[in-house]
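Journal club prep — side note

Before the paper discussion, L.F. wants everyone to see what a predicted structure for a comparable chain looks like in token form. Sequence:
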Amino acid sequence: MSLVRPVAAVGAAAATVLMLATGCGASADVAAEVGGVEYTVDDLNDYLATTDPGNEARAPRGQAAAWLSEWVFFAAIELELAERGAAVSNAHEAQAVADITRADPAFVPGAGGSDVAIHQRALVLAALEWAETEVAAAPVSEPLRHLCSRHVLVASQAEADVVVARLDAGEDFGFLAAELSQDPGSGSLGGDLGCVVEGSFVEPFETAAYAAPPGGVVVAESQFGFHVIEVISSGPATADNHPQIDAERLASMASDAELAAAEGAQAAVQDLRQQTLLELQDTVLERYAPVVRIDDRYGYWDREQFRVVLEPVS
């Protein structure tokens, strides 16, 4: 079991399920407690019997320790979400049933162990919804630019200088690319890289190319070597920026640029939401580790590892 993980990744293992048993004030023995939420021995035994009906011991120590570690983690996540105004709703529960049933047609809501599986999935949905409210959707962004270019790839600055000198002397770029380029794909095409949307090449290449005027030749160093780049045209997909491109192709390029910009913005938002979930988890591990209580018949709480261990923590 990996405790240090994003909430969005929870749910792969069948044993990783959550049900908060709020037995505060009850007379039943308490197996675990975190933040005032209790999980009783009876609930633990019932869960272990559900996951392993043939287990006569009902609550073997190692299995109980592993499950209680899971319970503490998810109970703490749910408590922290509640502190931030996010809670599992009926809508989350309904969606959880639909999700689990879709993934496993044999799943039967109401059968033994199903309620905890449903609640666990609903908690994941609540966490994802909370992250979406924390990080707003991507705004409409400007279309990306296109770069039409060709290059000669060589191994050193000295070789690049030779290529530039031969170009200055009037030699044909395509012939030099076919003769000298270490990029076999474009070299056989006279160095032609086509017209591609911004972000298609490595950053040093694009930085140098977009800074150069149409018809200009620049040298850029990347992890692949030294690029002698001829910029044919660059900028948004318009006739002014790319006069050599026909109208039909320009329209296709413009559409590609809009789509790429939208996808890039959405990917950035998803990265921020994932980071928000990781930060939520880090807060949970730090905040709740000191306030966990475990009945020592099942093990001992290790704050550093945020889990129940079988030997006393030194």
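L.F.'s comment for the group: The chain has nine helices and nine strands. Keep this in mind when we get to the figures.
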